Amino acid sequence: MPVIVMNKTRLVSCLLALLLPLSSWQEEHSKLLLVSFDGFRWDYVNRVPTPNFRALMEEVTGLHAESHGIVANEMYDPVLNRSFSMEGSEVYDSRWWEEAVPLWVTSQKAGRRSGAAMWPGSDVAIGGVYPTHYVPYNASMPFEVRVENLINWFSGNEAIDFGVLYWEEPDESGHNVGPESPLMDVVIKDIDIKLGFLRDELKRAGLYDSINLIVTSDHGMTQLSHDKVIELDTYVSQDLYTWIDKSPVVGILPREGKLDEVYNLLKNANPNMAVYKRDDIPDYLHYKHNVRIMPIIIEVKEAWTLVQNKTGYFMLGNHGYSNQLRSMHPVFVARGPLFRAGYTKSSMRSVDLYPLMCSILGIQPRPNNGSLGNVRDLLVETCTTMPTPTPVSREPSYAWAVGSLLGTALVIGFLISFVKQVTERRQLPLPLSNKEIFKPLLQDELRL
Ligand SMILES: [Zn+2]
């Protein structure tokens, strides 16, 4: 089945790059549109008829979280001594984002133009730079309006070279009803219809055959159960720590001098959760070398939820679990003049998207965790060959920290969710009133 599954969701990311001098490859570049349907698991296309995804298939950062610095939707930075929440105004404080350089920033410094339709972080002045065109985040803006903005930006005398488009579904519904619910079918069908709208509009504008289109997501989604809940209050007093971020990867900031006491209370407390001191987090998670990662991290097994106690809203779907789980893998479909037609790849890493996109845009990648060599097979052989960038070191040294500041990327969009999990429904700075998102779901609920 011609879907390319991404590996390592938590590894997110990508986009971004270096402020290196330009050279000959800058003249050879193509247009690129990156579309992210939040939380679109790789196998959703098999659940219901998805003719627009199928049509694309037939036609047809890089940084880990520890490197780009957006390690969770809720964070504490001990150097800044500030907390970050997707729900608060601090999302507009560029210091949170500047361990990475968004691809649109690098692209613009290379003389390209960019446009962002609701891509997370695109309305933040990262390194003092916004996309050439962008719209302040507003969850209420319909998908169709976002597409129209992009079509306009890709047209005319000063057309953009790189566009990014973000849509909040099917993530919201996946959290609310769980990915295995039959109610998700109509949500997935609706995403396919939206993809169809995008394709039609690109065709109508005469862009469809010249643009390289990537449709992907930041992560998958797994079903939760009311029977699989761990209450942390059972094992450790809240007086001993501060709870940073939420299930399924919980950051624990112990009170001064309480690290070992809290760790020892938790380490063997429950067989369905793994408890790590930061330095002991497994390497395959690529989630260790950043001060925003808390001294103790708890990771629960798939389908389990970790809370302090059973109060408040309970989600039936979530992401942020191990990148080894297939349920965490997002969809990936691409088409365009630089992509091989009718080609299927069994899996790829999200971090390899960044060098892939840099190659398409003809810009020099910044140091990153991805590898163009891993994904070059997706491209036709004539695609521009880029110089090999310096890999980002994962050594927890001061030099590494400096390196990450120099380097990286963006991801921002992806970022946010890319990274881990998110637990809660995304509460955004503006009122979440996109009735359109929920319409199909609500209609189905009424039928039941
Ligand atoms: Zn989510």
TrEMBL record:
CDD domains: Enpp (cd16018)
Range of residues in the leader sequence: 1-25
InterPro entries in alphabetical order: Alkaline_phosphatase_core_sf, Phosphodiest/P_Trfase
Keywords of the record: Membrane, Signal, Transmembrane, Transmembrane helix
Chain's gene name: ENPP5
Descriptive protein name: AP3A hydrolase
Segments crossing the lipid bilayer: 398-419
Protein origin, superkingdom: Eukaryota
PANTHER family documented for this protein: ECTONUCLEOTIDE PYROPHOSPHATASE/PHOSPHODIESTERASE, ECTONUCLEOTIDE PYROPHOSPHATASE_PHOSPHODIESTERASE FAMILY MEMBER 5
Origin species: Electrophorus electricus (Electric eel)
Pfam families, per database record: Phosphodiest
Key word Signal present: yes
